[in-house]
Amino acid sequence: MRLKRFEIAAVFAILAAIGFTFFISRAQPELSERxxxxxxxxxxxxxxxxxVKLEVRDRLLEKAETLLGGVDDRQRAAEILLSHxxxxxxxxxxxxxxxxxxxxxxxxxxxxxxxxxxTFSLPAGQYEALRVxxxxxxxxxxxxxxxxxxxxAAAEEDFIQAGLTPEQADWITEKSTGYKVKFKAVEIYEExxxxxxxxx
Length: 200
Fold this sequence. Notes:
4-stranded mixed β-sheet
């Protein structure tokens, strides 16, 4: 009887591990397919360059609000940002020029580690991103979600209105069971994938 109980427990443990691995392998990619992140890299960590970084952020968020108004599809949003990357770069440069450097803007998939914002967190993994590198790009970064527009503090209802499922909204706003364990598991899984992709 003890052996049977052990065997049953082992089977359940294996099934649980398989289920958890399945969750990990699907959760982040499904989430990333709904989002575009904004990644602004400062010229340096000087107080002036950090202030410029935030000025560029504000200018680009204003431009993005105009460009993406009414857009409800992530792929379409990425296409619009890409087709207007020169305009976005000019907007960033209008801020940077007085300080003696320029900005470089690109739209591409980029690896992000786990990030916590005011009211939500996003797991590590590959995301479509509008990347803005200012000058030498040697300063601290600034991140947010530019599509859907979630750079301001957001409630669970905002995520659902933005196109996320209720489960995804619960997950990133810390309402799901085992939130921290799941995020750590996803982070490890995605970092291993990123390492293998970059080195092999």
